[in-house]
Amino acid sequence: MNIAIIGTGYIGLVQGVVMSDLGFDVVCIDNDATKIEMLKQGKSPIYEPELEETLKKSLKNGKIKFTLDYNSGIKNADVIFLAVGTPPLADGSSNLNYITAASKNLAQFLSKDSLIITKSTVPMGEQTKKLKKLF
């Protein structure tokens, strides 16, 4: 099964590395070129026990890849995880700018039926409304 994960923060990176270690083919997409290059070298920008060692193993066996390009990243994906940040705003609500941007990019390049899973913290109903407009 081919999996794409949009976002390589704490949620997306750990999810991608674990899924690749389980034998799935994973492509992680992010808009931070420095982070993508670091990950391609097997270096993790975050600390999680065994993460970097597992990342290196998955890179070596070709089970995980990293890209800035949505088109190539989701091209063969059967399942796509949206795992981008939703930091709180001053009023306590979630900032949906990142997930909205990721959803728009996803909609632009989606060319096959794929299961889309939101792993970001998003208020119930808000993301559904936005995704319905895009797809």
TrEMBL record:
Ranges for domain UDP-glucose/GDP-mannose dehydrogenase N-terminal: 1-133
InterPro entries: NAD(P)-bd_dom_sf, UDP-Glc/GDP-Man, UDP-Glc/GDP-Man_DH_N, UDP_ManNAc/GlcNAc_DH
GO biological process, one term: polysaccharide biosynthetic process
Gene3D superfamilies according to UniProt: NAD(P)-binding Rossmann-like Domain (3.40.50.720)
One GO MF term: oxidoreductase activity, acting on the CH-OH group of donors, NAD or NADP as acceptor
PANTHER family the record matches: UDP-GLUCOSE 6-DEHYDROGENASE TUAD
Protein name as annotated: NAD-binding protein
Organism the protein comes from: Leptotrichia rugosa
Lineage start: Bacteria, Fusobacteriati, Fusobacteriota, Fusobacteriia, Fusobacteriales
